Amino acid sequence: EYDGDRNSEGERHGYGKARLPNGDKYEGEYDRGLRNGRGTYRFKNGAVYAGNYLQNRKHGKGVFFYPDGSKYIGDWVDDQRQGYGEYTYANGDTYTGEWFNHKRHGQGTYVYKDTGSKYVGGWVNGLQEGPAELIHLNHRFQGWFFNGKPLGRGKYVFDIGCEQHGEYIQSQQEKGEGEEEEEEEGSLPVETKWKALEITKLSSWNPQDEKPPFP
Q: Which listed residue, 105, 148, 193, 204, has the most CB atoms within 10 A of its CB?
């Protein structure tokens, strides 16, 4: 069903309201039969998108309310979260920063609601990667992350006025008897373990001074 403006060729053009065959609803601007410009799209499952469209795709600024109660406000490109935006997750956590291809990618800040801790640093394909700070209530970790885990040299800075230098090293999970042959190398999950080296007075931190722990 469609109720709204049309052009001389009979295409939806201008402002209108539509109910789609699958039960979704759209109200907003059209251009030559396609959703184009500002509009609000209500999904049958309860999700809502309000923002810009380009040729039937979410493109530009927009806000998306997901059925689980989470919400994204920010940039869209070709139906994907891309550019800069803020995502509030169903558990209350928030991520504010850069996006690419629907994933956290670039620089961003993730705040954990339960603990108040926050991660400020790099992201690659949705995972924490690159130089970053993990800030807790009375101390912080400064170092490098890879594949969502800290790796390589870094330091813990304590509010009492000292810092502990060290490094996160990979510790392969122990294999059970007879598993050696069946498991390919690198297929087991890799955990990282903190190895403390020295405690010093407070000093400034420049991640570029350290070599990244990954290729």
A: 105
CATH of the domain at 107: 2.20.110.10
Q: Which domain holds residue 34?
A: 1-67
Query: How many angstroms separate the CA atoms of 210 and 213, rounded?
Result: 9
d(C-alpha 120, C-alpha 79), whole Å: 27
Is 90 contained in some domain? yes
pLDDT in tens, the chain (215 residues): 999 999 999 999 999 999 999 999 999 999 999 999 999 999 999 999 999 999 999 999 999 999 999 999 999 999 999 999 999 999 999 999 999 999 999 999 999 999 999 999 999 999 999 999 999 999 999 999 999 999 999 999 999 999 999 999 987 655 555 544 444 444 455 788 999 999 999 998 887 777 777 76
Distance (Å, whole) CA 126 – CA 177 = 35
Give the integer Cα–Cα distance in Å for 74 and 27.
20
